Amino acid sequence: MNKIIKIIFLLLLNHFLLFFNAAIGEEKIKIGLLVPMTGNNAELGQSIIKAVRLAIKDINNDLIEIIPKDTNSKPDKTLKSAIELKQQGVKIVIGPVFHKSLSYLDEIKDLTFLSLTNKTLNLPTNVISAGINSTSQFNTIKQFLKLNEIKKTIFLTPIQDFEFEVKEGIKNSKIKTYRLHEYSTDPTKLTYQIEEITNYKIRKQNLEDEIYRIKNSNEENKEKKIKKLEQRYTLGGLNFDAVVIADFSESLKSVSTSLLYTDVSPKNKYFITLNQWFEKSLLNEIDIQPLYYPSINKINFENYKVKFFKKFNEYPSHLSLLSYDLVGLIYYLSLKTDLSNLSKVFKKQNSFKGKIGIFEIKNNKINHKLNFYKIENKKIIEIF
After folding, report:
1. What is the DSSP letter of 282?
2. Is 321 helix (H, G, I), strand (E, B) or coil?
3. CATH number of 135-296+372-382
4. Is pTM, for the whole model, over 0.90?
5. What is the CATH superfamily name and number for domain 27-131+298-347?
């Protein structure tokens, strides 16, 4: 009788273990999502949520569960929502979007945050910066400079909140700088600063002196020489081959225009800038072309926008593509390790491929292997 009881007990135990293992195998992959669902950036938050939904549809696995929470773009609200995610058993979080929202997240243990910020300084230890950071961009610019054997490059950096990020990217990439200049974005000061950087007044005076000298000389064909000089704005070479303008939007255009005013032309000096996300308004700025910059893969980005539009009848934000890739990354890693161990995985050096392109995780930040483009004759052309 005891043998029969033992056999029944073992059969029941084996059945329970099989059921338990199956249940474990079907465990939900919970991914937290910290985005602004209210406030000024609510539209951006909705675009990111839709991108995550699109990624889940493409992965086609019912085990993925997305739990969105509002940050309202405020640190205190972000902390409260993060605590709620932890209470719901979440181990990995996409977000928050903005660097300022990271302030209190180091208070939460056992959670890993994949923030969409491109800032890498002063990150909490449990936050991975997933944005297109300055190091990734300068690594790509460095490759372009080497490819074209450009020896003397000056760097123009605005005195803004990302000034130190730019300097950190220059340092980490070990890109060779000929000179590094800071400038104020105040329009009343900008032109004067660019004049000093390019030695405009000296070159202008050189031209006036040369015209005066020839006028008072006995040189042959001096009228022809003078006429030719009068068609110029300055005289004297510039002691750099390329200029990297670490700026965006209207401020980038202002700096470029100031360079043109000081007789520095993209026709004889390389004008290089940072990732512009294929800003269409730059296509019409013919005077500052060719303009070079690093960016994500354009074809992948265009394909993603088409897919997004077909699904939601609207175009996505740039940052939503980052969140789309991060969902795929988390899913890929979850197949290889338990979600509770993901924080250890992110601290190791790993390379992955997403819609943006190839990226690697190292030292609590994601570095992207970017493409390089130029705008010329109102067209965007891939260099590499």
Report:
1. G
2. helix
3. 3.40.50.2300
4. no
5. Response regulator (3.40.50.2300)
